[in-house]
Amino acid sequence: MQSQVIVIGGGPVGMFLACELAEYGVRTLVVEAENAVSGRPKATTLHARTVQCLVRRGHLGGLLDVGAPGAAGRVSSPFHFAGIPGLAVSAPASEPEPILKCPQDELERSFERRARAAGARILRGHRAVEVRQDTTGVQVTVDGPGGRTHCTADYLVGADGARSTVREQAGITSRTYPATVSAMAGDVRLDDPDALRPGWHRTPRGWIVAKDAPGGVTRLRTLNCEGAHGARHQPLTLGELRREVAYIAGRDIAMTSPRWLSRFSDFSRLADSYRAGRILLAGDAAHLHFPIGGQGLSTGLLDAVGLGWKLAFTVLGTAGEGLLDTYDRERRPAAQRVIDNTRAQLAVMRPDPGLDPLRALFAELLAGGGESALLGAMISAQDTVLPARTAAASPWEGRFLYNVALTTREGRTDVIGLLRAGRPLLLLFGEPGGSRLEQAGERYEQLRVVHAEPVPELACDALLVRPDGYIAWAPGGEDLRSALSAYLGGGTRDGDPVASVSAG
Ligand SMILES: Cc1cc2nc3c(=O)[nH]c(=O)nc-3n(C[C@H](O)[C@H](O)[C@H](O)COP(=O)(O)OP(=O)(O)OC[C@H]3O[C@@H](n4cnc5c(N)ncnc54)[C@H](O)[C@@H]3O)c2cc1C
């Protein structure tokens, strides 16, 4: 069966994107080099905006509790900035708790199950070796156990990680920031478990982060700011890790039974474009940064959230002209912001005693709460406001619509529940919404139209909400008809009735 989209790379970002595309009815093929999900410890943190978006797309069930719609106040989770504790990341109480702790491999397995259930074809044990495109489509050469094959599709997404073959073959250049520090990671057994207590340890020579892992294992990370690794891709040995820990700690700490030893650094990269014709990039293939604050996975999944519906509408022929180009405009600045904040955190982490007053100042600001709100919103990507499409946009446009409670003729519902089906949501407050419906026109069968009682805090008669939860349009700027055209194009068939779906 001919695919409409090929996703190269079935890591978390590729598999999540495949779920989205397949659930919209796009014929999707995932090409993944590995035979199975790796058990290697990676991300364990999902930040608030990612959690909020994933919940709206019907994921993370069973892993978290969502606050009651309309619940007042805020909920918060403790976090850190540059290793300095005291950062409170908060979100409205009607949303899930801001930080979800969940091992990356568990998420990957759940995305893969759901992508398969939705009909995505997943070719594990196959590696893409060549990618080409022309005006009609993309062609991929794939090496697998049965030899070399060729696949074609309308579009291709490179979700193939930091050393992306797709990025390279598509000729997409990047801005890079050279490594300035050397860091190591590994799971080991400490001969004396009390020799290094769990936590973040800073000394005049660097940082050691120790965490308890299952089975009496200690998960170690080291940071040495005296320079980059000499041989970045040389395998790390237990002896080297032990020497580095001893150097930073100022004493030997005996360790055995190494697993998952690796080097990392602050080498950072941002692709100059997330799109080259019919080829798009998402996740680590598009951006890379120092892993402080656990923002890599969250940022990549937000790429997939933003790309999924736009690409699906494009492939299915129901997207506004240029909708797919907004992916780059929205997501590249978000990645730049993450790169910048990780560089800022690393600057504060350098163990130079001259920076002690700066660290003390940050600790004071975090304890004071005010800066904590700003930094918490930044780390969790809740400060994201999408660029306005027109000069005369309403101030609501581009903002995320939090989970408000809605009362409809059929009963009570909320934003999270209404977005689950993945359709743009037209909320009409009060009666009867006739002129808005007229502007929506008969073309937009993709809309979910919900009539609800006015919501005091929204103070408007209508809102158009994108499947990813951001407000696409609100009264006060251009008219609804123009916004709908930008998102959904000329519609499907003239004369179709609007799908007016009752809430509940
Ligand atoms: C030790 C470590 C700790 C981390 N901790 C955190 C954290 O706490 N929080 C956080 O948010 N992030 C963390 N990260 C980063 C996070 O793991 C990545 O951001 C995330 O894995 C990116 O997902 P991805 O799908 O874009 O890329 P990847 O996970 O790299 O997946 C890419 C996939 O593409 C496949 N592939 C590559 N080339 C090809 C090809 N040519 N053909 C077919 N398949 C191909 C690979 O096999 C792989 O499965 C950590 C990373 C590491 C290494």
Give the SSE map:
Layout: E1 5-8, H1 12-23, E2 28-32, E3 45-46, H2 48-56, E4 74-81, E5 84-92, E6 100-101, H3 104-117, E7 121-124, E8 127-133, E9 138-144, E10 147-153, E11 155-158, H4 165-169, E12 174-177, E13 182-190, E14 199-203, E15 206-213, E16 217-224, H5 238-249, E17 255-264, E18 268-271, E19 275-276, E20 279-281, E21 287-288, H6 296-316, H7 325-349, H8 356-368, H9 370-379, E22 405-408, E23 411-414, H10 415-419, E24 425-429, H11 434-440, E25 448-452, E26 462-465, E27 471-473, H12 480-488
Helix pairs in contact: 1-3, 1-6, 2-6, 6-7
The structure holds flavin-adenine dinucleotide.
Flavin-adenine dinucleotide binds at residues 8-14, 31-34, 42-45, 104, 127-128, 159-161, 165, 185, 283-284, 291, 294-298, 300.
Structure description:
By secondary structure, this protein is α+β, with helices and mostly antiparallel strands. The protein is 28% helix and 28% strand. It has a six-stranded mixed sheet with strand order 7-2-1-11-20-19. A five-stranded antiparallel sheet has the order 14-15-16-13-17, covered by helices on one side. A four-stranded mixed sheet has the order 25-24-26-27, covered by helices on one side. It starts with a strand and ends in a 16-residue tail after the last helix. Residues 491-504 have low confidence and may be disordered. Bound molecules: flavin-adenine dinucleotide.
Bound chemical compounds: flavin-adenine dinucleotide
Major sheet summary line: 6 strands, mixed
Number of helices: 12
How many angstroms separate the termini?
Answer: 37 Å
**Mass-distribution shape:** globular
Could you give the count of β-strands?
27
Read across the widest sheet, the strand sequence of neighbours is 7-2-1-11-20-19
Instruction: Work out the helicity level.
Output: 25-40%
Give the helix/strand class.
alpha+beta
**Beta-strand percent range:** 25-35%
pLDDT < 50 stretches: 491-504
Radius of gyration from CA coordinates = 24 Å
What's the mean pLDDT score?
A: 93
